[in-house]
Automatic annotation (TrEMBL):
<dbReference type="Pfam" id="PF00560">
    <property type="entry name" value="LRR_1"/>
</dbReference>
<keyword id="KW-0433">Leucine-rich repeat</keyword>
<keyword id="KW-0677">Repeat</keyword>
<dbReference type="Pfam" id="PF13855">
    <property type="entry name" value="LRR_8"/>
</dbReference>
<dbReference type="InterPro" id="IPR001611">
    <property type="entry name" value="Leu-rich_rpt"/>
</dbReference>
<dbReference type="InterPro" id="IPR032675">
    <property type="entry name" value="LRR_dom_sf"/>
</dbReference>
<protein>
    <submittedName>
        <fullName>Uncharacterized protein</fullName>
    </submittedName>
</protein>
Length: 294
């Protein structure tokens, strides 16, 4: 690679490369984009701190065993960092220039601690993915950056209530489009303040301990396309207000304590019976008809 001194972008993703990442990459002085994802690279990273122009790096889905995020990644001004499944563990990293980060993906690792202050000064962050770790914290401990559009926290050990993350960050998350907190230990109701997320397109709170009723205010989320509240403790009826959400293409209400007639009409009539299964007493299409009281 020593002869490729003018190379600005290098993408070797989705191939069958194996072995160590060649140290000669560090000679690419003009390289600003490096994508080695979805290969079989293994071992530790070489000393490739000599990439002065680098702003985007993706090492996801390899066989790397990094342990911790290397200092040469933490200490430089990067906008896009993707380290999915890189064998990272312990505390979340502290970046020296968090204000430059726009997209950060540390999913499918083994991080446990460090959420408090983790996003301090990450003022430009738009997308955050910490799903598939072992993070243990209460939702009230996380402060989201203003203007963030995607937050993925699924498959961790997170506790607390949705009210905490929505109310504590109400002025910061009005642009949020994706919120995924599935497969955690979150409890309490879905608060009416969820309507503050006026641009929300995807909501996943499945496999938690969310209780109470589905708020009718969900019908105000007119951009909502995907909602999953399955495997929780929700009771009461499915609100008919969602009939007004014309863009909804996926919904899952399975395995709760919901009861009553499923609202009839789109979008409810496009979902399969499995989306309503294992509830207390839901009825009406696509389930069997409700019993007529005599």
């Amino acid at each position: 690679m020593a002869g490729l001194k003018s190379l600005a972008r290098l993408s070797l993703s989705s191939n069958r490369f194996s072995g160590g990442i060649p140290p000669s990459i560090s000679t690419l002085q003009k390289l600003w984009y490096l994508n080695l994802s979805s290969n079989g690279f293994s071992g530790q990273l070489p000393g490739i701190a000599g990439l002065p122009s680098l702003v985007s790096i993706d090492l996801s889905f390899n066989n790397l065993s990094l342990g911790t995020v290397p200092n040469w990644i933490k200490d430089r001004q990067l906008s896009d960092v993707r380290l999915t499944g890189c064998g990272l563990k312990g505390r979340l990293p502290v970046f020296s220039r968090p204000d430059s980060l726009m997209s950060l993906d540390l999913s499918r690792n083994s991080f446990e601690l460090g959420i408090s202050g983790f996003l301090t000064n990450a003022s430009s962050l738009q997308s955050l993915d910490l799903s598939g770790n072992q993070l243990t914290f209460d939702l009230k401990e996380i402060t989201l950056p203003p203007g963030i559009s995607s937050v993925q926290l699924g498959s961790n050990r997170i506790t607390g209530s949705l009210s905490a993350i929505l109310n504590n960050n109400s002025s910061r998350i009005s642009f949020l489009e994706v919120l995924n907190v599935s497969r955690n230990r979150i409890s309490g109701p879905i608060p009416d303040s969820i309507t503050n997320l006026t641009g929300l397109k995807r909501l996943d709170v499945s496999r938690n301990r969310v209780s109470g009723t589905l708020p009718a205010s969900l019908g105000k989320l007119i951009d909502l396309q995907w909602i999953d509240v399955s495997v929780n403790l929700l009771a009461g009826k499915i609100p008919s207000s969602l009939l007004g959400v014309k863009r909804l293409r996926h919904a899952n209400f399975r395995a709760n304590r919901l009861c009553g007639e499923i609202p009839q009409g789109r979008p409810y009539n496009i979902f399969p019976a499995s989306a309503y299964a294992h509830n207390l007493c839901l009825c009406g299409k696509p389930l069997p008809p409700c019993r007529v009281r005599k």
